[in-house]
Amino acid sequence: MDTPSGKLVRSHCVGTTAVVYASDYLNKLTGEKIEHECRRQLNCGCRALVIDFSDTKLVNSIGVSILLGIIDIAEKCGARIAFSEVNNETVQLFEMLGLTRHVVLAKDEREALINLSHYETTTPVVH
Amino acid sequence: MSSRSPSENFRRILGRVVRQDFVGRAGELDRIMAQAEPGNAGRGLLLLMEPSAGVSELLRQAYDEIFNDRTDVIPIYFAITRNETTAVSAAIEFLNTFVQQYIAFRRDEPVVSHAPLTLHDLLELAPPADFEWIEQLVESYNRLRFSNDDKALVRFCLGAPQRIPAGRGRPFVMLDGSQLAEYLNGAVVLGTEILRVFGRGGFSFVLAGLRRQILEAAHDAKCNFELLDTLRLERLDATEAARLVEHVARRQQVGTSEAARDLLVQQFAGSPFFIGIFLQAAREKHTPLLSYLDCERLYVDELFGGHIHRHFADLLEEISPRLDTRHLLIRLLWEAAAGEEQTSSFEVWRKRLHMTGNELEDVLHRLHVQEFVNWDETTVEAGAGPQAWKDYLKIRYRLDVLNEPRALVVADMLADSLKRAPHTMARHYKQIANAGLRDLISRFNCQRVPAVLFDYNTFSNKYKGAESETIVSGLSAETDFFKLPQTVHLASCSAFINDMRQICEEDHCLIAHTFEEGTYSDAQQVIWLAADIESKMEVDVEIARVWLERLENTAGRLGFSRYQIWLISNEGFSAEAATLLVRRKALSSSRQQLGLLASRLGETPLTPVVPSAAPDEFLMVVPMGEDNELIAANTAEQIAKRLTFRPEAINQIKTAIVEACINASEHSFSPDRKIYQRFRVESDRLVITISSRGVVPANLNGTNSGSETKQAAEERRGWGLKLIRTLMDEVEFERVDDGTSLRMTKYLRPQQSTKGANE
Q1: Domain A10-122 has CATH 3.30.750.24
Q2: What ipTM describes this predicted complex?
Q3: In B, which residues are within 8 Å of A86 by CB distance?
Q4: Residue A25: strand, helix, or coil
Q5: What is the pLDDT of residues B426-455, one digit of tens each?
Q6: What is the rounded CA–CA span in Å between residue A115 and residue A104?
C-alpha cells in the first residue's frame, strides 16, 4: 500500500518495515523530506526502514549528513535500516564518508526486506 | 540624481559634474529645491552635516537647477574657504559674489557667475532696470568700507540680498563652509552674524555646516527656530556610495574592479569627500584600483603625503596652531584612542597638554565639532572619527612622537591596511546578512502572525521538509496567532553593553523597545532581546542555554522588568534546545521562519540572474540556492562528455561541483548571491573554477579528517571540501581579494584519452 506523504516522498509498509523512496537528487530539502517520513513511519510503529535509491542519481554531502541523522534516529528507536539499489557512484560516496559502516546495502528492495526480516526474527528489539 | 530630469538645454554653471553623474543625494536635492518654492519664502534650512559627508556639489547642483528653471527665484551660492582670514574679507567676498550671481541670473548669462569681475565691472554689466539700486549698494558699501565699523560692514554685506527691490525676484542664498566662519580672525564672529542677518533678512536660505556646530551657532544667534528647518546630511549608504565610486572613477578615468569599489565604499564608510579625493589621487598618479593591494598602496601614500594627509594636517593645524601643543595633542589623542580606557577627565587633558582651561576648551570644542572626540564639558572620550583619521593619527604618533623610521611606519601601515581589508568586507557582508533581522523587527507594528513562526519545534514538526507552497498554505490555515508589539526603538545590544562587541557582530544581537497593542503604558512595555546565532546546523542545547543566560543577564543589567527573548538560528534548534527555550518562555525561529515572517510583513526577496559566455571557455553565473548547483553540474556533464570522460569520472566532477556550489552558498555571506563558474577545456583535462564574493571561510585551507558518525553534526557539513579533494585530481584555492575562488582539475586517464580530443 503506497502512502504518499508530502509532495515527493513515496513510501509503503511491508509488515512492520517501511520502504521510503529517495528522489533523483538527495540534498537538504529532499533529505529532510525523507527524514520527516522516516520519523513518521517510526512513530506509527515501524520497526525497520528501507530507503530505496533506485531513482537517485546524485547525492550531496548535506544529503549524506541527513542520512546519518536518520540512522541515528533509527538506532535510538531500536529500528534496523537498510539502503537499497544504490548506484555505484553513490556507494563510493557513502564509503568515502563512512556511511556504509552503519547501514546494510542491498541490491534491491526485495533483498533489503529479506535481510531485515531475517534480522527481526533473530534479534530482539530493545527499547 | 534628482527626480527632476534636466532638459537638453540645461546649462552646467557651478556644478562640477553633469547631472547624470551627480549620484547619491537625490532626496536632499529635492528638499533644497522645495525650500526655494514660494511656500517656504523667508524660511531657512540648516543642513546638518556629518564631517566628511560632502555638501558643496549638492549646493552647486541646486544652484544650476534653480538658474536653469528661470523662475523668480534667484540662486546665490557662496562658499567660505580657508583662504579667508577675517570675517570682513569673507563678508566682502560674499557681497561681490551676490552681485555677480544676481547679474548673471538677470542677464541669463551663466558665464558671468564665475568670471573674475570687480564691483565696478559688475556695475557696468548691470541691466538698466537694476542699475540704480546696485549703484546705491556699491556706493553704500564704499562708504562703510572705510568707516572702521567692521560689524556694520559685515552686516551690510551679508544683508545685501534683502536690498533687491520688490518685483525683481526672490533671492535664495546657499552658504557652504559655514563651519569655517566660526574661526575667522577679528572682532566679529561671522557664523553668528550670518545666522542673525539671514534669519531676519526675509529671504530663503540654506546654511550647510557641521551638525555639532551649526545648531549651537543658531542658538547663539538667537534665531527664530519657527522659521528654520533642518535636514541631516549623512554619509551615503553602500549602494549609493558604490554608484558614486563608479561614476567618479569613470569621470577620472581610473580603472576599478567590483571588489576594489566595494572596499573603498567600506573603508571610507560611504563618505563622498574621501571617495572623491581618493579617486582624484588615483587619477593624478595614474593608478588603477583593481585589487586590494592597489587600493591600500594608494591609501598609504595618501595618508603620508596626499590629499588625505593635507586634509587632516589642515584640520589639526586649525585645532591646535602651535607646533609643540600639536605634538602633545597627537600623542594624547592616539594614546587615549589606542588604550583600553578611552574616557578621561577634562583636568587630565589640561595637565597633559599644559594648557589653560580656556585654551583647552577651544581645542576640545574644535575636536568635538569635527567628531574626533566626544566632549561633554567634564569628560573627554577619544577614539572617535573615521578610520582614515585613526590611521593618520597613528602614523603621526609613530613618526613625530616615537621618531620611528618612516620606511618602517609606511611598511607597517600598508601591511596593516591589507590585513584589515578582508575583515572590513567580512564585517560588511555579515551586516548585510543580518540587516534583515533589524529591518524585520523595526517593522513590528501590532500585526497578527501565525504563532508557529516563533516556535521552531512546532514549525519543524509541522513543516520540515514540506514544499514552500505547502508551508504557505499551512500558515494561512493556522488558527493560533501571535500579535506583534509595536517597535519604537531598536539598537544593537552593543550600544547598550559594550562587552557584547567581543561576543558577536553588531547586528547579530538587537534590543527593541516595544509596546504591546501600541499602548504606551508601563504594563504594555516589553523589551525584545533578539540574537541571531551563527550556526550551520541546528543549535544544540548548550549553545541555546549560553545565549539564553547571556540575554537574561543583559536584561538584568539594564533593568528591563518585562522582556522577551527571541533566538534565531539558520537551521533552527535541536529538540532538546527547543524544549529548553519553550520552558524558559523564549521564542525561537530558523532562517526559514524568519523569511516567512518577512514575507508576511511585506518584504520581497531578490534573486537576480546574470548569465554570460566566452568563446573558448564556458562561463556561467547562477544565483545561489534553488538547487541551481544542479544546473552547473549538468553543464559540466555535457562539457565532460566532449572530453570523453567515463561516466564514473563525470559523476565525480558533478558531485565536486555541487559541493563547491554548496560551500559557496553556505559560507560566504555573498553580497550578490551569485556563483561564478568557469569551465576550461584542455586537451587532457577539464579545469573548473567556482567563485563567489563574500567572506572567506575560516577553514578554507583546512583538510577535514575522516569524520566518524559520532563526530559533531557541525563537522559533517565540513565534508564538502574533503569530498572535492577526493573526487578531483587537483584542488586549489586561487588568491582573490574578495571571497573565494576554487579551482578544480580533472585529468583524462590514459585509457580514456584514446578517443581523445581529436574526435
Answers
A1: yes
A2: 0.81
A3: none
A4: strand
A5: 878 877 766 678 888 998 988 889 999 999
A6: 8
